[in-house]
Amino acid sequence: MMSGRSAFKLSTLMLFTVLFCTEFVRSAFLFSFLPNFAVNESGQTVAWVGLAVSLHYTADTLIKCVAGYLLDRFSLRWLLPATFVLMLSGLAAVFFSPYAWGLVAGSVMLGMGASPIWLICLEKIRLTERAAQIGAIYTVWLACIGLGPTPCISRASALPNKQQDCEEDSFS
């Protein structure tokens, strides 16, 4: 049988893993994939990408008030899967909508789904180890921001450069 301290560390480690996966996907999506996909594949303008990213973080910030209320009243067993469904729906909206509003709505849904993860992690912090645990949360978050775009960048460098091909054709 696990002691209370071991169970807490296990749940903290599990939450850090959830935070890592969430922020990894979010940073890969927002910083690398979305600009490339929206402009080159979906035919949207950079202005729509900027609006989608801005509204993503606006929704992330605004939903924290509602998420705090929900966290006080409902179980994590219900809320955590709901946030992942919302995030997945947002990604699907971006992929499958041919319209610019689908790009924006999907980004907003991704922000709304990712928002409660931070609050869940912060809720589990114990006062006696507050500095170390908050430091660990920020380390996970910053690692994800740095690592998230890496798979998209390496994949993009393997693809032919459309801009370069256009420039070569214009000088021929």
How would you sum up this structure, described in words?
With 172 residues, this protein is an all-alpha fold. 86% of the residues lie in helices and 0% in strands. It is built from 7 helices and no strands. Helix 1 (4-41) runs antiparallel to helix 4. The longest helix has 38 residues, at 4-41.
Q: Provide the structure class.
A: mainly alpha
Low-confidence stretches: 1-8, 163-172
Helix content: over 70%
Q: What is the tally of beta strands?
A: 0
Measure the end-to-end span: 74 Å
Main sheet specs: none
User: Percent of residues in beta strands?
Assistant: under 5%
Oligomer state equals single chain
The sequence of SSEs as H and E is HHHHHHH
Which word captures the global form? globular
| Alpha plus pi helix count | 7
Q: On the 0-100 scale, what is the average pLDDT? A: 79
Radius of gyration: 19 Å
Question: What are its keywords?
Answer:
172 residues, mainly alpha, 7 helices, 0% strand, globular, disordered C terminus
Summarize the helices and strands and which ones pair or pack.
Blueprint (H helix, E strand, L loop, with lengths): L3 H38 L4 H28 L2 H21 L3 H24 L6 H18 L2 H9 L3 H10 L1
Helix pairs in contact: 1-2, 1-4, 1-5, 2-4, 3-4
Describe the structure in brief:
The chain is mainly alpha-helical. The protein has helices spanning 4-41, 46-73, 76-96, 100-123, 130-147, 150-158, 162-171.
